[in-house]
Amino acid sequence: MNIERFLVFFSSMALAALCTPLVLRFARAKGAVDLPNQERKRHPSPTPLWGGLALWLALVGVGFIAWRLGLLNDARIGNTQLLGIVLASLLLVGGGMWDDAKGLKPWRQFLFPITAVVVSLAAGIGVQYVTNPFVAGTGPYGRALLYISPWFGSAIAGIWLLGMTYTTKLLDGLDGLVAGIGAIGAFILFMVSLYWDVPLSGTSYLALMVAGACLGFLAFNIHPASIFLGEGGSTLIGYLLGVLAIISGAKIATALLIMGIPILDVAWVVVRRIFLERTSFASADLKHLHFRLLDAGLTHRQAVFVLWGFTAFFGTSSLFLQSQQKVMALLVLGIVMVLLAIVVVVRYKKRT
Prior knowledge:
69% helix, mainly alpha, 13 helices, two-stranded antiparallel sheet, two-stranded antiparallel ribbon
């Protein structure tokens, strides 16, 4: 890691760590706190929200300096895309803070993520090609690249960004879980950028900024948390991981391996709520995998460490796998998810 990357990473981490206590006091003064008034809310006392604001301030602060120094611009990402990311992330954080304070209806909550995605697409963030994992080609690392139309690429990018945004939103149920996954995922995407991007690319700096900011915030968010991400922070991390996956060379398969367990968990929860229970997919319950791990006898931190471990293992494996091997890894991940669910259910039944 050269000195510029080192400074970007630790500056983001330090600024997030400095901003978080200030945001904590600000949220408490404004009454933006999460009350432990439901069974799924297992924190012992009212806890400030709006942690996403601390992340955003750290990223924008360090990002502005990095941009002024010319570290963020390259052939893959320019000023228009950077401005789109800043505006989209501001929409997510601002809308999330409003929701935390006022408790918006689900359709109003949805307006901010969908508008953020539209802003991103308008700024030119889209998928330009897909890889055929079963055919050798002349692209980088022998990959067969199928270039697609801008409209189709925008549609893929929009669905992907919205899916990633809601994955981390619905996953945010345990202290430190989403912030830790954000740090792990961003660092793995940084490693990917070293193989795929041009040297000293803007993508690698952006990934390090996200990883550093998440780690700086995590110091206050690990169990027992003194501040929560809130709606804005939980959606922000998923959105940023989704953007990094696109601008680092359409590394969606890599991001799927990083986020595989959370995505499968959220997908099952959404299907169950809509088709089996006939409720809103955004409704809250205790049937997420992380709550099941607690019911199976794991402590709060143990459950978080287990999910971090799966994220790190499958995400790191993507660094050493070719496209076809990543498809097999995704199948293995699906099997692991099923086996993990069975083990958790069996342990829970034995305990009860």
